[in-house]
């Protein structure tokens, strides 16, 4: 049967939500129904108020400590096509078009996307995954490729006709296979979901993946989305509603990729959102940038992408193992020349927790032990400085 007919039949039973009043930390409240199509626009969980405050503090600290703002970089995309054997068989051409739409959407942000791999799996169970489900976990554990260094993009037909969802960058360590973006295959450019057929659902979800919240996560209440120049509104901009538009671009969430406008309406990220994404990636997902197109595993300095500096080319920062850890974890790295090396551990709010190394080290492989001592449970940021280069990894302490 024509999938559009199936979807339309399902939509008849749904009544669109006209005004959405989001609740803190309630994932179900983060899924308003898009007025135009009746589909579930987005299943990405809203942050808890505590998370929002923590993240804002960590990014603020990061900003204060640096003279130059981070500028984005190139992200390799591993695409996983899941079908039920019949439905969901998108073409390579559609995937290439989706990557093009991502690059158009992020053209002013400093981020670029390159298609690294496509794999295809026939599995009627995984084809209908939903956010937070055991099915999602199993599918991602089986299919994810090098999640620290690649954006894993899953194409399927989520349960309840949800259009997509993403993991926020701070929720777990970079290597966690749950990191990634899921979108309904019908939202790809030329897809069959009316109003959401230009590939901009993926732009919205990648916005989450790089650290953006919805433009209106707290309804009319502060603190908005944590980004100063995105307007919070009491209700989501649902579907196309030109009556809500104001003359100035950048003023109205209906045009914002992180609102709930349909694909024809959304065209922009604000400058504040761009800054937030680059900072969030620098703090929480630094390994995403500068990865070699296909060779998985080797970690090189993000600076490589911008400068052909011999000194940074052979620095490898492997991070902590085990991770998460209980009492002790080993942090490994190697340097190409004898030089000054500092390895420090920071809390998520940017406070120095430990200095593990601050010395001249010879060329070669090194490791340092991090003991839990009196540190509280939680995520920490490891910062390795080698000469002028700096790399970060995250580690989680579980008591
Ligand atoms: Zn969303």
| Fraction of residues in H or I helices | 10-25%
DSSP, total strands: 12
Question: How many separate domains make up the residues?
Answer: 2
Mean pLDDT: 77
Proportion of residues in β-strands: 15-25%
- What are the low-pLDDT stretches, counting only 5+ consecutive residues below 50? 1-37, 217-224, 230-251, 294-312
How would you sum up the major sheet?
A: 5 strands, mixed
Q: What is the string of SSEs from the N terminus onward?
A: HHEHEHEEEHHHEEEEEEE
Q: Any idea of the CATH class of the largest domain?
A: Alpha Beta
Number of helices: 7
Label the structural class: alpha/beta
Q: List ligands, each type once.
A: zinc ion
> What's the architecture of the largest domain in CATH terms?
3-Layer(aba) Sandwich
Describe this structure in words.
The protein is of the alpha/beta class. The chain has two domains: 3-280, Collagenase (Catalytic Domain), CATH 3.40.390; 299-397, Immunoglobulin-like. Helices cover 20% and strands 24% of the residues. It contains seven helices and twelve strands. The strands form three sheets. Strands 2-1-3-5-4 form a five-stranded mixed sheet, with helices on one face. A four-stranded antiparallel sheet has the order 9-8-11-12, with helices on one face. A hairpin with a 4-residue loop joins β8 and β9 (352-361). α2 (49-65) crosses α6 and α3 (92-105) crosses α5 (200-209). The longest helix has 17 residues, at 49-65. The protein is globular. The site of zinc ion has 5 residues, from α5.
């Amino acid at each position: 049967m024509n999938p559009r007919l199936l979807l339309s039949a399902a939509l008849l039973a749904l009544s669109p939500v006209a005004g959405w009043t989001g609740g803190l930390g309630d994932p179900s409240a983060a899924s308003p129904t898009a007025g135009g199509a009746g589909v579930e626009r987005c299943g990405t969980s809203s942050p808890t108020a505590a998370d929002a405050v923590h993240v804002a503090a960590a990014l603020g600290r990061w900003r204060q400590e640096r003279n130059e703002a981070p500028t984005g970089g190139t992200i390799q995309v591993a695409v996983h096509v899941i079908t039920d054997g019949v439905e969901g068989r998108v073409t390579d051409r559609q995937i290439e078009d989706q990557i093009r739409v991502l690059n158009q959407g992020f053209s002013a942000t400093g981020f670029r996307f390159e298609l690294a791999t496509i794999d295809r799996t026939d599995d009627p169970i995984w084809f209908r995954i939903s956010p937070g489900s055991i099915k999602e976990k199993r599918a991602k554990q089986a299919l994810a490729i090098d999640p620290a260094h690649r954006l894993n993009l899953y194409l399927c037909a989520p349960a309840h006709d949800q259009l997509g969802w993403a993991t926020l960058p701070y929720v777990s360590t970079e290597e966690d296979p749950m990191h990634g973006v899921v979108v309904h295959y019908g939202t790809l450019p030329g897809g069959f979901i009316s109003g959401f057929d230009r590939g901009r659902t993926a732009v919205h979800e990648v916005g989450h993946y790089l650290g953006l919240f919805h433009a209106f996560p707290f309804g009319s209440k502060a603190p908005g989305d944590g980004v100063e120049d995105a307007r919070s509104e009491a209700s989501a901009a649902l579907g196309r509603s030109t009556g809500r538009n104001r003359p100035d671009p950048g003023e109205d969430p209906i045009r914002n990729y992180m609102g709930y406008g349909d694909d024809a309406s959304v065209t922009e990220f604000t400058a504040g959102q761009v800054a937030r994404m680059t900072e969030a990636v620098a703090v929480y997902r630094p390994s995403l940038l500068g990865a070699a197109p296909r060779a998985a595993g080797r970690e090189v300095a993000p600076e490589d992408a911008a400068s052909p500096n011999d000194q940074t080319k052979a620095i490898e920062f492997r991070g902590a193992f085990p991770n998460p850890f209980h009492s002790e974890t080993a942090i490994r790295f190697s340097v190409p020349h004898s030089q000054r090396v500092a390895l420090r551990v920071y809390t998520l709010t940017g406070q120095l927790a430990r200095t593990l190394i601050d010395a001249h080290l010879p060329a070669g492989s090194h490791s340092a032990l991090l003991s839990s001592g009196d540190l509280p449970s939680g995520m920490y940021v490891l910062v390795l400085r080698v000469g002028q280069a700096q790399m970060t990894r995250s580690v989680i302490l579980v008591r």
